[in-house]
Amino acid sequence: MTAEPATSPAIRILLADDHHLVRTGFRVILEVESDMHVVGEAADGERAVSMAGALRPDVVLMDVEMPRVDGLEATRRIVADADRSNGPAVLILTTFDRDDYLFAALRAGASGFLLKNGTPEALVAAIRVVARGEGLIAPELTRRVIAAFARPGGEPTTTAVALSDLTPREHEVLVLVASGASNAEIAANLRLGEATVKTHVSRVLAKLGLRDRVQAVVFAYEHGVVRPGG
């Protein structure tokens, strides 16, 4: 595969998987990329949490089913322990195509979710996406999971206050983000430039205290901004 030019410091990656051969395979794939560097490996979730704090990676590749502490709980701890703006992005990788795992991962604070049967190119691209602070969730995946698991309505007063801080345009952007639309699609829908859309998305995340657009999708459905099937 062709590596992107290393125009900025390499993406620091922590591998968390209880299978040594899987970790080795990931390392081989990633270390040939000029903009990526594997800084450590963890064989269980508890070790992943401690290494994330010590090594301060940019991205944690996290398996779900691991001994001692599973990947979902490890993700919750890493996200809770980290500074919102500087903490690592967690990219969940699993062999299990299960909706409950996916939604639990997103609610735990993961920035993305991939199946291990994907291609090396998809893995590399996903790491670059979450390292930029963007969430990785396909529109069809958004509809499938949120429709099954999200709780509509009933937001607390603090949420209502936070939503009231959004401008009408920012609210429109939040609704479109929740539909799974890309920045280009939002720009076309609202007749805005992509740079302007990116600014609106950043402001929405900041005002609502969210890490990335994946969390924005979950937030929008859980707090009744949009509703499954609506």
UniProtKB/TrEMBL annotation:
Domain called HTH luxR-type: residue spans: 159-224
Molecular functions (GO terms): DNA binding
Modified residues (4-aspartylphosphate): D63
One Pfam family hit: GerE
Keywords carried by this UniProt record: DNA-binding, Phosphoprotein, Transcription, Transcription regulation
Domain Response regulatory: 12-131
Gene Ontology BP terms: phosphorelay signal transduction system; regulation of DNA-templated transcription
Name recorded for this polypeptide: Response regulator receiver
Organism: Salinispora tropica (strain ATCC BAA-916 / DSM 44818 / JCM 13857 / NBRC 105044 / CNB-440)
